[in-house]
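Residues determine shape. Take a concrete instance:
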Amino acid sequence: MANADFICIKSESGRGAMRLGSPETCVVLDRDVDDPALGRALRSQLAKSRHLTPMQLLEAVISVERLYKSWVTRMMEQFQYRNRRAMFKSMKACMVSLQAGGFVLRPLHHDKLEGWSRTKDDSIQDIDLPENVTPAELGAAVRQAFARCA
C-alpha cells in the first residue's frame, strides 16, 4: 500500500485464503525510498509468507479485523492523520506474489475509501518479473505497479 506519505509492505500467509501478518511485521518506508531498498524490503516480506494449517487459518480469520484496526491506528498516529479519510483517500494497493519462478505484481482498483479489488476485464495490466530480478528492478516495478492502480 502507498499514499503520498509512505509505502507499507505487509506479508500475508495462507493457502488460497490469505491472512495478514501482524501489524508489527509490516515495513513502513518513506515514499521517497530508493528502488534497491524498496526491492530488498519486498523480498524480505515475501520471505515471511507461510502456508497455514486449517487451525491457523481459523485463528487468522478471527483476528483479521483486530489486526487491521491495529495497523490503521498505528499508521494514523505515526503520520498524524486527523481521520481515516486523510490516510486512505489517495491510498494505492498492489498484491505481489512469488510463483513459478517469478514475481507477479497485481495493481488494484481503489473501489471505496478502504477497499481495493480487481475484476476479470478491468484492463489493469499485471507486471511479471523473473525471480532473479535485481532489487533495483523490483523496486522500480513496484512503483510502476502503483502508477497502474486505478
Notes: Residues 54-78 form the longest helix (25 residues). The domain at 6-148 is CATH 3.40.1590.10 (NMB0488-like fold). The mean pLDDT is 86.
